[in-house]
Write a structure and sequence with these properties.
The complex is a heterodimer of chains A (about 250) and B (about 325).
Chain A (H helix, E strand, L loop, with lengths): L4 E12 L2 E7 L2 E3 L3 E6 L5 H8 L7 E6 L2 E2 L4 H7 E5 L10 H11 L4 H15 L14 H12 L6 E5 L7 H16 L3 E5 L3 H4 L4 E6 L2 E6 L1 H8 L4 H9 L13
Parallel strand pairs in A: 4-9, 4-10, 7-8, 8-9
Antiparallel strand pairs in A: 1-2, 1-3, 1-5, 5-6, 10-11
Chain B lengths: L2 H5 L8 E12 L2 E12 L3 E5 L6 H8 L7 E6 L2 E2 L4 H7 E4 L11 H11 L8 H8 L15 H13 L5 E5 L7 H16 L3 E6 L10 E6 L2 E6 L1 H6 L6 E4 L3 H10 L3 E7 L2 E6 L6 H14 L6 E4 L4 H9 L17
Parallel strand pairs in B: 3-8, 3-9, 6-7, 7-8
Antiparallel strand pairs in B: 1-2, 1-4, 4-5, 9-10, 11-13, 11-14, 12-13
The chains are: A alpha/beta (about 250), B alpha/beta (about 325).
């Protein structure tokens, strides 16, 4: 790792034709931090994420993730990170146990590691009785908790979560966040995107992307103070629609 | 929520745009709708609020004549959704949750296609769609596939409105949409409602409940409550306290050990707490929980009564979360 930094970007930029999706973003994420990566639809979050996980080459600028360069060492990054999204995470036609085994195999774990970690994972989630159920038969909340645990199976240093709680019931959504806190307490760095503004408050620090740039970055309480608002929701509105926010006050840093 | 509250939605009158009685729909062993009854008044902006898998989409597909109920009845605009489906289809607008327009057609081509299906033209109906269409008309030659999420949403809404429906069904129009665009979409619905249109909308975002005249809280195919957002939150049946302390997550874990804890949930930067002593004064509850946290070494503690939100009410009425159920889904045979 580069000191205490899990993610380090410098002027990271991606251009598609005439459109600059990500425009010279520079930020760091510390080891063990829960980092909220927010922004309006189309602000460039997904493009930035795809560069950080080694799926898309930057046009210019640089980024290091888990100590590896995203351009020259993108394969190494894939071993050191976990990834889950709402849309794609598990194979619905496989059972819970089969999904765990599949991902363990993909990440190169030994049979013994897979066996041990499968049992531990099932016990921790209380899923023993559902081990042989097809994933498609599980409620969404179960699936998302399982997907998160599977994303951590190879003990990555960083896990990227793309809208993991979308559509999940409010109690399960909160249980999911406890899993995030546990992972962070164990030293895993978490980078998460969400459209639930209350969840932004659960992060150690957040960044808000606006039109390809980072419009704000800091702890939730710092940002509220800086923008003179009561909630992150209002900070978000002020940044994303400067004309509409009216007297909400505050100016971008 | 008391059963009486939920029942108040089932009174019928001539002014009802939707009347649903004991609606049941099963898919194999899965009970998608478990005996729903309610009515929606003409001109109302009515919301179905709840997580995925609650039956919202199944309900909307039945109300829009795309799916036949297992048992029970549903009438929309006075017509039966099964027997009168052809007449009804002329009168309702439906925006499904998944983007369902033709990606290879342009904005204008999609709109012309939907108008022609209903035997009309964009020109004739222009005044109906103008408030929304004017926002995307500059891009009318762009293919639907190349549109941003917000533009797709506006186009889909135009296509659902182009035949001047008397009632509009919107299935999760704001899912996956950022917080600012969601507000703007609700502003748009307010304008449509002002024209007299009845609007039935579903959403997983609890904070959107306050934008509706009345809401039904939905989980696992049942209505947990049905009323105005205000009445639902006011019927929260015990004092609710907001608690802050120096370390929110550790404070949450500590309060779980507190013998008087009934519920404790994080809500953004504050913890929402209810006490087992349902009738105790909030001030007393606040003093006691503060003393407990101090005894555990916390500082900067602030605790005081706060009004319940829809999400508090939802969690209070959902009982056990899906995780605590014996089986992932209740099968037809189970109680």
């Amino acid at each position: 790792m580069t000191g205490e930094l899990a993610i380090q970007t410098k002027d990271l930029t991606r251009v598609f034709g005439a459109f600059t999706a990500v425009d010279h973003i520079t930020f760091d994420v510390r080891v063990g931090e829960v980092f909220g990566f927010l922004g309006a639809n189309g602000a460039g979050k997904t493009t930035a994420l795809r560069m950080l996980i080694g799926l898309l080459a930057p046009t210019s600028g640089s980024a290091r993730v888990a100590g590896h360069d995203v351009v020259t060492e993108s394969e190494a990054i894939k071993h050191d990170i976990g990834y889950m999204s709402q849309r794609f995470s598990l194979y619905e036609d496989l059972t819970v146990r089969e999904n765990i085994q599949l991902y363990g195999g993909i990440y190169g774990l030994s049979n013994r590691q897979i066996r041990d970690r499968t049992e531990r994972l099932l016990a921790r989630l209380g899923f023993e009785s559902a081990a042989n159920d097809f994933v498609r038969a599980l409620p969404l909340g179960w699936r998302q908790k399982l997907a998160f645990s599977v994303a951590l199976l190879h003990q990555p240093r960083i896990v990227f979560l793309d809208e993991p709680t979308s559509g999940v019931d409010p109690i399960t959504r909160r249980q999911f966040w406890e899993l995030i806190y546990e992972a962070a307490a164990a030293g895993t760095t978490v980078l998460i995107t969400t459209h639930y503004m209350d969840e932004a408050e659960y992060c150690d620090r957040i960044s808000i992307m606006v039109a390809g740039k980072i419009g704000a970055l800091g702890t939730p309480s710092d940002l509220k103070h800086q923008f003179g608002t009561e909630s992150i929701d209002e900070v978000f509105v002020t940044l994303a629609r400067p004309d509409a926010a009216g007297g909400a006050g505050g100016s971008p840093p | 929520m008391s059963p009486a509250t939920a029942q108040s939605g089932t009174r019928q009158s001539d002014a009802d745009a939707v009347v649903v009685d004991a609606l049941v729909k099963r898919f194999g062993p899965i009970v998608a709708l478990d005996g729903m009854s309610f009515s929606v008044r003409a001109g109302e902006l009515f919301g179905f609020i709840g997580p995925d898998g609650g039956g919202k989409t199944t309900l909307f597909r039945i109300l829009t004549t795309l799916l036949v109920p297992g048992s029970g009845t549903a009438r929309v605009l006075g017509q039966d959704v099964v027997k009168d489906l052809w007449r009804l289809r002329q009168r309702i607008g439906y925006m499904p949750g998944r983007f369902s327009l033709y990606p290879d057609l342009s904005i204008e081509e999609n709109l012309r296609f939907f108008a022609s299906v209903f035997g009309t033209t964009v020109e004739r109906e222009y005044s109906q769609i103008a408030p929304i269409y004017s926002q995307i008309e500059a891009f009318k030659d762009r293919r639907a596939a190349a549109l941003s999420g917000g533009m797709k949403q506006k186009l889909a809404l135009c296509c659902a409105l182009v035949h001047r429906p008397e009632i509009l069904f919107l299935d999760e129009p704001t899912t996956g949409v950022d917080a600012v665009s969601r507000r703007e979409f609700w502003d748009l619905l307010d304008r449509l409602k002002a024209t007299g249109l009845t609007i039935v909308v579903s959403t997983p975002y609890m904070d959107e409940a306050t934008r509706c005249d009345r809401v039904a809280l939905v989980q696992r195919g049942r209505l947990l409550a049905l009323d105005t957002p205000r009445a639902i939150t006011q019927s929260f049946d015990r004092p609710l306290l907001g608690i802050r302390a120096n370390d929110r997550y550790r404070a949450l874990l500590a309060i779980r050990d507190y013998p008087q804890t009934h519920t404790i949930y994080p809500f953004g930067d504050v913890l929402h707490f209810t006490d087992k002593r349902q009738r105790a004064a909030p001030e007393q509850i606040a003093r006691d929980v503060t003393a407990f946290l101090e005894s555990r070494g916390f500082h900067d503690i602030r605790a005081g009564a706060i009004p319940a939100t829809i999400e508090d009410s939802f969690m209070a009425s959902m009982g056990a979360p899906e995780d605590n159920q014996q089986a992932p889904f209740r099968s037809t045979g189970a109680a």
